[in-house]
UniProtKB/TrEMBL annotation, chains A, B, C, D:
Gene3D superfamilies: Dihydrodipicolinate Reductase, domain 2, NAD(P)-binding Rossmann-like Domain
UniProt pathway: Amino-acid biosynthesis; L-arginine biosynthesis; N(2)-acetyl-L-ornithine from L-glutamate: step 3/4
Gene: argC
InterPro entries: AGPR (IPR050085), AGPR_AS (IPR023013), AGPR_dimerisation_dom (IPR058924), AGPR_type-1 (IPR000706), NAD(P)-bd_dom_sf (IPR036291), Semialdehyde_DH_NAD-bd (IPR000534)
SUPFAM superfamilies (alphabetical): Glyceraldehyde-3-phosphate dehydrogenase-like, C-terminal domain, NAD(P)-binding Rossmann-fold domains
Catalyzed reactions: N-acetyl-L-glutamate 5-semialdehyde + phosphate + NADP(+) = N-acetyl-L-glutamyl 5-phosphate + NADPH + H(+)
Active site: 147
Main location: cytoplasm
Domain spans labelled Semialdehyde dehydrogenase NAD-binding: 5-137
Natural source organism: Pseudonocardia xinjiangensis
UniProt function note: Catalyzes the NADPH-dependent reduction of N-acetyl-5-glutamyl phosphate to yield N-acetyl-L-glutamate 5-semialdehyde.
Enzyme class: oxidoreductase
Listed name of the protein: N-acetyl-gamma-glutamyl-phosphate reductase
Intracellular or extracellular location(s): Cytoplasm
C-alpha cells in the first residue's frame, strides 16, 4: 500500500497536536498540510513544542485549497465549520471530523443543542458500538465522538444492550482540563484549576448529553435518559466516568456480559476483578479501562471507565477510524501502553 | 469565660494538624497536650512544618494520663480506639471524636461495616442536620461525621426532607488525597496521584455509605438507598460531591427549599443561580458551597456540594461542635474565606 | 483606636483577592471601596468565589473619586498606574502600592527596565531589611516589594551584610503560577502548566532583577551582581528561592549570622539544622522559612527561602506595612500558620 | 538481525516500568524475564497498570538464574546490587545498569559518596559526551547516568569544553517526584507533594554531585566545582535544570558553540532563540531541550535544559545505549515527541 498523505486542520489546538503526535508514529502516513485559523503563518513549534520533528512547519490558513490534494483530512475545528469544508474536499477524500457537526442523527436534537441547520450525520467513530465498525470500513466520512460520550458509551452500552439495567442512567465524569480546548478563559488558568474541583454544565445541559442518549438508546433499543454531570479536575488529560443504572434483575452475569462485549476489542480492557481504572494508565494510549460491579444495597449496576480524552477520547479514535476507512489493520500506529507514572 | 485547655490525640496526622491550625486561631482556647502513636517523642515541627508556633512542642504517647486535665480532648485516631480512651477521661471532659466509632446508631450496621462490638453512638457533629444542633449544645461527647457524608448529607437532606425526590440517591464524590490520611501506601505516592483520577470502594462498599444512609433516611423519614462512588483526584484537599435523585414531582420549589434550609446557617452557602461550587473557594474554610438544579430530561434533582475535607469535613466541624458544646458562639474562630487561588 | 476604612483598587485580581482575604480577618479595619478596571460593575463573587462575605459587593471603577474617603488605599494595578492616582488621594491617606512603580530608587534603572518617566521611590515594604522598618513607621506611602525580590533578599542580605560572601550571587527561584497574575495567556492555561516546568526571563532580563540588585547592594555596601532565573512550576502559590554566592572566607559563623539577623523578626523562621523549607508550610501565611548551609567543595554559601508569593510576597507584606504605617502592632491580623497539606 | 531477548530486573519500579514501556515499542527486542524483590510472585499489572500487554506476566525473583539466557539484561536496582549480579551473567550478555554502581571512575569518590568497595566503572551511558559514544558501541556493560547529571552535563559540557566559562558552575535542578523512586516515605505522599516546592540534599551533599563533577571536569580538561541544589516540584516526571557559570570572556559565540556541539545529535534540541525549554514537551520522549544565553550584567552564561527524568534521564538513555551496544541504529524505538499537554 502506498503511503497516505494526510492534512490536519486546526493543528495548533490540543486535538490537532495529539493527532500529529500519533500520526508521526504511524507507519502508513505522511504528514502534509497543517492549517490553522488565527495562528496561520506561524511555525507549529510555537504552539506544539513537543512535536519537535515538525517544529519548523509553518501553519497555513484553513481553506479548501490548502486541504486539497490529501488522501485524508482531519478536521479539528470549532463546531459548525466542517460541513462546508468537507463538501469542497471531494468525495474520495477521507474526511474525519473531530468536531460535533455530524455526530447527531436527529436534526431536532442538533437544533436544540447547537442551533442552526443540521449538517446531517456521518458514520459514528466509536467502532466498539454495535454495528459501528462495519459502517466505518471504507467510509469517506467519519464523525469522531465526543470524549465524554466515548467513556460513558463504552461503560454502559453492554449493560443496556443485555437488558441488565433499566434505561435511566447516571453519569458523573471527571475530566482533565485539555478537554476544554486551548481556550483563554479565566477559569481555565493554571492557578484556578490546580488545587480545585468544579462541576459545570450540570443538570443535563452539557452538549455531550444528547450524544450519550443517542448511543445508549440505540444499544438499549428504547429511549434512555442520561443524567450527566461533568467535573473539572486538576490534571491535563484523562476522563474517569462513573456510571450507574438501576438493575433490571439481580445483576447476575454482569461481568460475563462485559467480558463478552469486549473479548475481541483491541483497545478496551476489562480489568481483573477488584482492580479499578486509573486515568494515568491510559495517558497517551488509545485504550479504555473498565470495571463493573453490582451494588446490592442500592440495586444498581456501577461501571467505571478511564480514557485519555485526547487519545481514545478524540485523536486516537480518529486514527483508529482512519485505519478502518483505509482498510488498514485497525490497531496500526496506536499505542496500547500509557505513559505512567 | 475562662480559657479552655484542649488536647489533641493524633497530632501528627492530617486531621490533627488541621485541628491545631484552627485552634491556634481560636480566641477561647489554649493548646495543651499533643499526643501521637509511633511519633511520640518527636517534635511536632517534624510532622507539621506549617504549624510554626508549635514547632518545638514534643509529642507525648496517647494515654488517658497524657490526655487528663484538659477541658476538651480531640481524638484523631484510627477507628476502634476512642471508646476505651473516652471512658477514662471523665464525664466532664468534652471528648470530640474525629474517628468513626460513635457515628452509627445501629449496632448491626457497625458490625457489618467495621466489625467488632459497637461502642454506642454520640451526638452527631453535623449541626446543620435537623435536630442535630440541639443535641450538640452542652454535650460532653461528639462524633464528628465522615467527610463524604458531610458533603452528601448537606447536598441531599433538604430535598429528601421536603419530599422533592424519591429515596434512591446517587452520589459521586471526588476528593483530594489527604482524605486517605498520612498512610504510606503506593497508590498515595505523589507520582501516582498527580496526573491521575481513580475510583475506589465502588459498588457501595465504602464505609461512609452507611453514614449517608443513616443521615438521609432520618431526613426522609423512610429508608433511603445510596449508591456512592468515591473518586481520588490530584489535589491535596477538597471534596466535590455530585448528588442526584429522581424527582418525586416536577421539581418546582427546589431552590426555595434549599434557600429555606440554609437561610440561617453560617457555614453553608447556596450560590447564586448559574454559579457552581469549586473546592478551591473552600480551601481551609469551614464552609460548604451548594448549588441545585433540575434536569427535566432525566427527571432528576441534581445538587453539587464543595467542602474542604479537612476543615468542614473534619477539623472545622469538630471545632464548630466544640463551640456548641462549650456554649460559645458557633462561629468562633472558624474561617469563612478560603485560600484561593 | 478607631476602625480604619480601607479601599482596594484591583480587587478582582490575585493580589487584590489576597489583600481582601487578609483584611477580612484584620481586627482594626473595615472594608470600604472595591474597584477594578474591566470588571467594574460586576459583583466580587464572580471573580473571588472564596471571599464569601464580600460576594455581593459590586466593583466600582478605579478612579480618585471612588478611592477617596478611605484611611488606607491599596493599589493592585498594572505598573505605571499608581503615581497619578496617589497624587490625587491626599497626603493623609496611606497609599500602599503593590505594583512596581515606586520600588526602584534609581531613575535610570526604572527607565532601563520599565521605560518612561520615573515616579520616584517610596519607602520599601520589606521591614526585615536593615533600616526599612523605621522608614515604614507612620509613612503615608509604601512600595510593596516584588515577590521574587522578597524571597531572594531575605535569603541573602544577612550574608552580604556580614561579608560572608563575595557580591556575585546566583538565584534560581521556582514559583507557582499566580505570580503571573490573572492573565489570559496560553502558557498559563491549566493544561499547559500542570505537569510542566519552564524557565522564563532567563539571562537577567526579568524585571525583578534590578530590585534584587538594589536591596542586596544596599546590604553589602557595594555593588552586587545577581544572576536570576525564574522557573514556573505546577502549583497555584509559593516561591522557593535557591540562592548562593562564593564564600569570602571559610563560611564559619554562617548560621549564627542568620540567627542573629532574624532573632527578633516575627515572620522569618530559620529552620532547625537539617530541615529545609517547603512552600506548602507557608501557604496563606505571612511567613518566610529559611535554611542556610555551606558547600565546602564548591566554596559557596547556599540559602533556601520559601514564601507564599501572594502573602509574604505581596498582600501579607502590604498589610504588615499598613500596620507599621498606622502604628498598629506589626503582626496584627497576619497568619503565622500555613494551610497544609 | 535476530530479535534480542531482554530481561528487566526491578520491573515493578518506575525505571523498570519505563524501560518496559519503551521496549514494548522497540522493533528488535522480545521481552523475556521480569524480576523484582519484594514483589516477586505478583503479576506486573498490579504494579504497572499502564503496561496492559504485560499485565498478566508474573514477576520472578531477581537472581542470576532468572536473568540468565537473555541477550540484554537491564538492572533497575538499589545501588550496590549490580556488580555481583553482573559477574554471574556472562561476558557475552549486555548488562545495562540503571543504578549508580559503575558510574564513578574514582574509587575514593565512590567511597566518599556511597561507601563500601568500589565495583569499578563501566562505559558511561551518555553518548552525547565527548568520546562516550565510541566506548558504548559494542560494549557489554553500560552504566546509565543519573537523571540530574544527564541534564546538567548536556547543559554545561559544551561551554566548559570550549572554554567559554570558568570552571565553577551552579546548578539548580527542579524535578518531578518519580525521580525519588517508588519509596514509601511521608514527604513523597501526594498530599505533601502537591501544592509544594522543597529543596533537599542542599549544599553539595546529593550523590549526583560527584557524577556532574566527573563529567564536567573531563569536558573542561581541569577540575570543575559544582554547586548543586535539587528541588522537588509537584509533577510526576520531568527535570528542568538551570545552570550557569562565570564567563571566561565576553560570551561571544555561545550559541554557535552549542549549535555545533549538538548539530548531529538526534535527541538534543537547541531551541530557536527566545524559546525556553519546558519539561512537558519532553514527557515520555528521549529528548533534551536546551537554550543558552548570556547575562551581561552578571557576566554569566546561563543554560536551561529540560528532560524527562525517566526517559532521557534513565530508561530512554538505557535503550539508546542498548542500541549502540547491539550495533542497531541509535534512535531505534525511541520517541522524539513528548506527550503534551
Amino acid at each position: 500500500m502506498q503511503v497516505m498523505r494526510i492534512a490536519v486542520a486546526g493543528a495548533s489546538g490540543y486535538a490537532g497536536g495529539e493527532l500529529l503526535r500519533l500520526l508521526l508514529a504511524h507507519p502508513e502516513v505522511e504528514i502534509g498540510g497543517l492549517t490553522a485559523g488565527g495562528s496561520a503563518g506561524t511555525p507549529l513549534g510555537v504552539h506544539q513544542p513537543h512535536l519537535l520533528p515538525l517544529a519548523e512547519r509553518v501553519l497555513e490558513e484553513t481553506t479548501p485549497e490548502t486541504l486539497a490534494g490529501h488522501d485524508v483530512v482531519f478536521l479539528a475545528l470549532p463546531h459548525g465549520r466542517s460541513a462546508e469544508l468537507a463538501a469542497q474536499l471531494g468525495d474520495d477524500t477521507v474526511v474525519i471530523d473531530c468536531g460535533a457537526d455530524h455526530r447527531l442523527t436527529d436534526a431536532a436534537a442538533w437544533d436544540r443543542w447547537y442551533g442552526g441547520e443540521h449538517a446531517g450525520s456521518w458514520p459514528y467513530g466509536l467502532p466498539e458500538l454495535p454495528g459501528a465498525r462495519d459502517a466505518l470500513r471504507g467510509t469517506r466520512r467519519v464523525a469522531v465522538p465526543g470524549c465524554y460520550p466515548t467513556a460513558a458509551s463504552l461503560a454502559l452500552f453492554p449493560a443496556l444492550a443485555a437488558g441488565l439495567v433499566t434505561p435511566d442512567v447516571v453519569v458523573t465524569a471527571v475530566s482533565g482540563t485539555s478537554g476544554a480546548g486551548k481556550s483563554l478563559k479565566p477559569h481555565l488558568l493554571g492557578a484556578e484549576v490546580m488545587g480545585s474541583l468544579s462541576a459545570y454544565g450540570v443538570g443535563g445541559v452539557h452538549r455531550h448529553t444528547p450524544e450519550m442518549v443517542q448511543n445508549l438508546s440505540a444499544a438499549a433499543g428504547r429511549p434512555v435518559t442520561v443524567s450527566f454531570t461533568p467535573v473539572l479536575a486538576p490534571l491535563p488529560r484523562g476522563i474517569l466516568a462513573t456510571c450507574s443504572a438501576p438493575l433490571a434483575g439481580d445483576g447476575a452475569g454482569a461481568r460475563e456480559t462485559y467480558e463478552k462485549a469486549y473479548a475481541d476489542e483491541p483497545f478496551v480492557f476489562l480489568l481483573p476483578e477488584g482492580t479499578w481504572p486509573t486515568t494515568a494508565a491510559t495517558l497517551g494510549a488509545n485504550t479504555a479501562q473498565l470495571q463493573v460491579t453490582v451494588d446490592a444495597d442500592a440495586q444498581r449496576l456501577v461501571v467505571v471507565a478511564a480514557i485519555d480524552n485526547l487519545t481514545k477520547g478524540t485523536a486516537g479514535a480518529a486514527v483508529q477510524c482512519m485505519n478502518l476507512a483505509l482498510g488498514l489493520p485497525e490497531t496500526t500506529g496506536l499505542p496500547l501502553t500509557g505513559v505512567a507514572p
